[in-house]
């Protein structure tokens, strides 16, 4: 724990374990499956024969909103009208058929460029392999099933116009979608803090949701935009969220089963592997009874992540009391304050020339990543590995630079959770019942400032591994700098010799935050390290270290319209992640023959 000069304390370091099946901890079988899925993706894109480039949501059936619909909002009706098999085996077969049909429609409706644009928009700031691995884990490492699921997700994103809603942000969505702002302004839904694995914790207050309080189409669109905005709170290697439904005061008028199931449908079908756990806290018997009726509609893996809890003890192993809100027995004394959108907050979107140029640059990088990945696939991983790592960093940085010209602001931009001066940082602040104020900075190893510096070092001749280790050393040593700005970058190196950076009197690269021309070192292909074959990898949890122990101004708070009203304290938690069931690919890959016939070349 370190103290800042503004009265806030910052949470210190720790380690956590990355389970198998994630970027940085892949077995040989995992890597084989990853290469096969990339190859399938290329074939899917090459086989697309449609002509449509994009959609803004007109295709999606958002449902009707009339009295008849309202009368059907009960568990038995939800099951009866779902058309979903209750038996898990039958449900799995139906799911295969549906995903195959969706892929067929995707290929006939949209063109190759639409598929690629949508895939790279789906990736956002994630490592591209992270996106692929989500589908592989969700389909138990069956490449054919993962291909179909990915295609189904791309089609859904195109049909629903997901990216258009993200582009609109709260300002435009609030004008175009009835009752949209009410879902947040009432304090019904919000994210605050993270658990022991740095996964954001998202709260939903059931009693504030009335089944007749908003049109059903509005609720579905709101659910989608929340999923997208919560993804901004993920910091690699963590790629999941915790959702806590507060069921205190729940009654029949709150039992909106279709929309509750839509949340789970989105998580299992269109945002795979994004849910860590969903808590139903303090649920009354009526909700437990309803859950017993509808749980058979869900995939067994997603179903297993829905957990009923009643006490603070049930939660605090995952969410420490010093990060848990007071209404569920935690120490954080917070009353939700809504920071609404303002005219002009998205004015950068009006600069169409700059926006188009930044997206063109991003797609140029993604095309290069695809080109190198094809070589990596064809060589069975022997070529292109180091270049892919470098390009993944450049893509993340490019997305950061593109975001303000494309994405409409969310509440997390307006309240300071996402500092504009250093994209990739997530700032959580907690005010505790005893008056302590704790600031948690997540994402130092993956933020814009770190990426700029690492890419400069790689351009000078360092390997990816060396640059990443240097980041860890800087954070631990207190020389990393301020968390809220990129203006304090160290001097730009001019070379790399004998394991050390070389500087020829270069001035500090304070404003050098654009790295469009950073290229891989010529000899980088031989610098790739051997892959892990089993076990788990210890990953430093950088966000619990002092941002800069030597700089008294390093923790100045960002300007915010929201009063500081949340908190967490010195935590004694052992920040290590374990997994009871690490992702393991099947010994024999299941063949989804019809998929192969559609994408065969």
UniProtKB/TrEMBL annotation:
CDD domains linked: SEC14
**Basic and acidic residues bias: start-end ranges:** 562-580
- For bias kind Low complexity, which ranges apply? 516-528
**UniProt-annotated stretches for the region Disordered:** 516-601
Domain named CRAL-TRIO: which ranges? 177-336
Looking up Gene3D superfamilies in the UniProt record yields: CRAL-TRIO lipid binding domain
Composition-biased stretches, type Polar residues, lie in 529-561
One matching Pfam family: CRAL_TRIO_N
Q: Which InterPro entries match?
A: CRAL-TRIO_dom (IPR001251), CRAL-TRIO_dom_sf (IPR036865), CRAL/TRIO_N_dom (IPR011074), CRAL/TRIO_N_dom_sf (IPR036273), PITP/CRAL-TRIO (IPR052432)
PANTHER family (UniProt xref): PHOSPHATIDYLINOSITOL TRANSFER PROTEIN CSR1, PHOSPHATIDYLINOSITOL TRANSFER PROTEIN CSR1-RELATED
Q: What is this protein called?
A: CRAL/TRIO domain-containing protein
Species this protein is from: Acaromyces ingoldii
């Amino acid at each position: 724990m370190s103290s800042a000069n503004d009265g806030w304390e910052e949470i210190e370091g720790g380690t956590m374990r990355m389970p198998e099946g994630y970027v940085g901890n892949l077995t040989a079988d995992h890597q084989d499956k990853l290469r096969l899925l990339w190859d399938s993706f290329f074939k899917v894109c090459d086989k697309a024969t449609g002509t449509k480039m994009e959609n803004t949501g007109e295709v999606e059936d958002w449902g009707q909103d009339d009295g008849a619909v309202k009368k059907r909002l009960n568990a038995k009706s939800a099951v009866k009208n779902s058309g979903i098999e209750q038996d898990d085996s039958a449900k799995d077969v139906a799911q295969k058929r549906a995903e195959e049909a969706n892929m067929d429609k995707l290929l006939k409706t949209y063109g190759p460029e639409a598929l690629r644009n949508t895939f790279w928009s789906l990736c956002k700031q994630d490592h591209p392999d992270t996106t692929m691995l989500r589908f592989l884990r969700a389909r138990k490492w069956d490449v054919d099933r993962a291909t179909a699921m990915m295609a189904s997700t791309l089609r859904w994103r195109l049909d629903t116009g997901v990216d258009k809603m993200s582009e609109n942000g709260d300002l435009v969505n609030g004008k175009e979608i009835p009752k949209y702002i009410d879902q947040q302004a009432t304090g019904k839904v919000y994210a605050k803090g993270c658990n022991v694995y740095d996964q954001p914790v998202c709260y939903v207050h059931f009693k504030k949701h009335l089944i007749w309080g908003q049109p059903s189409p509005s609720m579905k669109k709101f659910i989608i935009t929340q999923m997208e905005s919560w993804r901004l709170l993920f910091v690699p290697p963590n790629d999941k969220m915790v959702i806590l439904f507060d069921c205190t005061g729940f009654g029949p008028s709150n039992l909106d089963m279709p929309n509750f199931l839509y949340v789970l449908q989105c998580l299992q079908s269109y945002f795979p592997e994004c849910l860590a756990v969903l808590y139903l806290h303090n649920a009354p018997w009526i909700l437990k009874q309803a859950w017993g009726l509808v749980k058979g509609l869900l995939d067994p893996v997603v179903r297993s992540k829905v957990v009923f809890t009643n006490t603070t003890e049930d939660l605090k192993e995952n969410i420490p009391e010093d990060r848990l809100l007071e209404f569920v027995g935690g120490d954080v004394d917070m009353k939700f304050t809504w920071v609404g959108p303002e005219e002009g907050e998205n004015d950068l979107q009006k600069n169409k020339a700059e926006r188009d140029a930044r997206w063109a640059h991003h797609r140029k990088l993604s095309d290069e990543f695809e080109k190198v990945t094809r070589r990596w696939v064809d060589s069975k991983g022997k070529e292109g590995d180091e270049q892919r790592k470098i390009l993944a960093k450049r893509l993340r940085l490019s997305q950061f630079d593109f975001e303000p010209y494309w994405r409409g602001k969310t509440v997390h931009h307006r309240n300071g959770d996402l500092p504009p001066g250093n994209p990739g940082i997530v700032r959580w602040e907690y005010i505790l019942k005893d008056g302590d104020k704790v600031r948690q900075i997540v994402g130092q190893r993956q933020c814009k400032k770190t990426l700029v510096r690492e890419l400069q070092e790689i351009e000078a001749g360092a390997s990816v591994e060396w640059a990443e280790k240097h980041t860890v050393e800087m954070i631990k040593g207190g020389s990393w700098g301020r968390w809220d700005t990129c203006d304090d970058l160290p001097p730009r190196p001019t070379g790399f010799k004998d394991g050390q950076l070389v500087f020829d009197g270069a001035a500090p690269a304070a404003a050098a935050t654009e790295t469009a021309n950073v290229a891989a070192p010529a000899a980088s292909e031989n610098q790739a390290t051997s892959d892990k074959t089993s076990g788990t990898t210890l990953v430093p949890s950088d966000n619990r270290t002092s941002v800069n122990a030597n700089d008294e101004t390093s923790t100045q708070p960002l300007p915010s319209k929201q009063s500081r009203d949340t908190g967490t304290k010195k935590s004694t938690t052992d920040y290590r992640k374990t997994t009871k069931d690490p992702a393991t690919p099947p010994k024999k890959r299941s063949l989804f023959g019809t998929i192969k016939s559609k994408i065969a070349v």
